[in-house]
């Protein structure tokens, strides 16, 4: 891949360290003199040179610059930008689920939570992501797709697609960047490209631009692409937020099927990125939902859990207006009887629900708001199902419920192979 045109500031010389353990984040931890060093892309047992990017609370944070003595558990990464998207590309794939299991167990003991026995499940593969957001950067050859370099420097690494994404996403992204180069667009004007696909191989896309640009036009011969939009987006904000739609071609949404329920997905709505793995988790949740009792689905997104369970009278709570819109139409399309949808933050107050309900929570990475933790501890539903993309915050919340609930089952799924992330599912009953 070509190099960025603008050279970055000369980095400080890397520091040498021996890595002695994994951190819960998936970084290797070592020391340099009396400094603790956290390094992405470094494995326990390795002697490495670490390029320090940040100093925070006395700890040096960075990424591996050179491996002086490699661990037997190291493999070649699949792509040169692996530290941007999936730093565990250098870890032997057959060890990944075991490592994740050990890290979650360690987090549980740090939070003082006793878990039933479990192991992380799921194939360690690539090409699973059905959504990806690329940025742009300038190179000697023109505009390129990019990801941020880890460490908050704001530097961007040029790339030509990503192995985590399924192939239709990469095919469309490459064709789009080629068109933008034909039109002579620069990274100053182009903000981001968000692509969403389904298992049928269809793609919808949104290109976010900071200024009005010449018409980009349709892609008539680009087979996976069934619809795309050009959005004008505030040049002062780094976020991909829509201020105005400048161009519109083809379908606004594609459909994905989860069991018997169909879901409409746009380039902008939330949906689980690894659908087959999510289906495994959904099956596990189905086994734990109390029969013939009401369901409350908090942090409901577009309804993939609550609609998938298909129980009449389900109460959904979701704060994002885009998701609420999709949730409403997904409930109708699935023929779900008498759903109630509360478009508000969960911490704004939960309506009354029968204590024999099954309550499902699936919050963002930060975990539950303290008010939600408190309200659920007070109401003590008969069954509480907690799905999380961040076991660390989930286990923190479970530790706060020590006097209210006990964990009766715990499972973990490899939703995000070749990255340190893991999805975990806790089933709780009141004490
Ligand atoms: C991890 S997603 C889960 C979505 C859904 N359960 C699914 O499986 O697709 C978290 C969802 O919580 C929503 N959310 C974030 N903060 C919230 C809050 N304070 N109250 C309610 N929903 C919130 C987000 O918009 C997002 O849809």
Task: Provide an overview of this structure.
The chain has three domains: 15-74, Beta Barrel (OB fold (Dihydrolipoamide Acetyltransferase, E2P)); 102-124 and 273-430, Vaccinia Virus protein VP39 (Rossmann fold), CATH 3.40.50; 131-256, OB fold (Dihydrolipoamide Acetyltransferase, E2P). It is built from eight helices and 22 strands. With 431 residues, it is α/β, with parallel strands linked by helices. The radius of gyration is 23 Å and the shape is globular. β4 (47-56) and β5 (59-69) form a beta hairpin. The protein has an eight-stranded mixed sheet with strand order 6-21-22-20-19-16-17-18, with helices on both faces. S-adenosylmethionine binds next to β17.
Compose a concise summary of this entry.
The protein is an alpha/beta fold and 431 residues long. It is built from eight helices and 22 strands.
Instruction: Evaluate the radius of gyration.
Output: 23 Å
- CATH class term of the largest domain: Alpha Beta
**Beta-strand residue fraction:** 25-35%
Q: How do the helices and strands follow one another from N- to C-terminus? A: EEEEEHHEEEEHEEEEEEHEHEHEEHEHEE
| Broad shape | globular
Helix content: 10-25%
Whole-Å distance between the termini? Answer: 57 Å
Content-based structural category? alpha/beta
Largest sheet features: 8 strands, mixed
Look at the structure and name the CATH superfamily of the largest domain. Answer: Vaccinia Virus protein VP39
Tally of extended strands? 22
Biggest sheet, spatial arrangement of strands: 6-21-22-20-19-16-17-18
What is the annotated CATH architecture of the largest domain?
Answer: 3-Layer(aba) Sandwich
Count up the domains: 3
């Amino acid at each position: 891949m070509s190099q960025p045109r603008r050279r970055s500031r000369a980095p400080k010389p890397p520091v040498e360290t021996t890595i002695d353990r994994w951190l819960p984040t998936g970084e290797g931890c070592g020391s340099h003199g009396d400094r603790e060093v956290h390094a992405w892309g470094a494995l326990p047992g390795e002697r490495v040179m670490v390029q320090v990017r940040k100093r925070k609370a006395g700890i040096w944070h960075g990424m591996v610059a050179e491996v002086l003595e490699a661990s037997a558990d190291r493999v070649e990464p699949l792509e040169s930008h692996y530290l941007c998207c999936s730093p565990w590309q250098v870890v032997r794939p057959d060890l990944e689920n075991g490592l994740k299991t050990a890290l979650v167990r360690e987090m549980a003991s740090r939070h003082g939570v006793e878990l039933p026995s479990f192991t992380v499940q799921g194939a360690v593969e690539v090409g699973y992501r059905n959504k990806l957001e690329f940025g742009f950067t300038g190179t000697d050859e023109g505009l390129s797709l990019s990801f941020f370099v880890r460490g908050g420097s704001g530097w961007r690494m040029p790339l030509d697609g990503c192995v985590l994404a399924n192939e239709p996403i990469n095919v469309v992204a490459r064709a789009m960047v080629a068109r933008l180069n034909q039109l002579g667009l620069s990274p100053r004007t182009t903000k981001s490209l968000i692509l969403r696909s389904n298992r049928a191989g269809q793609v919808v896309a949104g290109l976010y631009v900071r200024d009005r640009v010449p018409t980009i036009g349709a892609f008539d011969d680009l087979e996976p692409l069934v619809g795309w939009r050009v959005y004008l987006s505030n040049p002062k904000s780094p976020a991909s937020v829509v201020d105005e739609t400048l161009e519109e071609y083809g379908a606004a949404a594609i459909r994905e099927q989860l069991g018997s329920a169909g879901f409409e997905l746009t380039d902008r709505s939330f949906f689980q990125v690894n659908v087959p793995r999510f289906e495994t988790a959904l099956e596990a949740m189905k086994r734990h939902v109390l029969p013939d009792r009401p369901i409350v689905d908090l942090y409901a997104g577009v309804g993939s859990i609550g609609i998938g369970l298909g129980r009449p009278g389900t109460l959904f709570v979701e704060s994002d207006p885009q998701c609420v819109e999709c949730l409403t139409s997904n409930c109708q399309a699935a023929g779900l009887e008498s759903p109630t949808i509360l478009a508000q933050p969960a911490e704004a107050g939960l309506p009354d629900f029968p204590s024999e309900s099954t309550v499902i929570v699936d919050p963002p990475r930060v975990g539950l708001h303290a008010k939600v933790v408190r309200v659920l501890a007070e109401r003590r539903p008969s069954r509480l199902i907690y799905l999380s993309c961040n076991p660390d915050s989930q286990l923190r919340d479970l530790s706060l419920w020590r006097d209210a609930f006990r964990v009766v089952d715990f499972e973990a799924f490899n939703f995000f192979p070749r990255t340190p992330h893991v999805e975990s599912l806790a089933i709780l009953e009141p004490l």
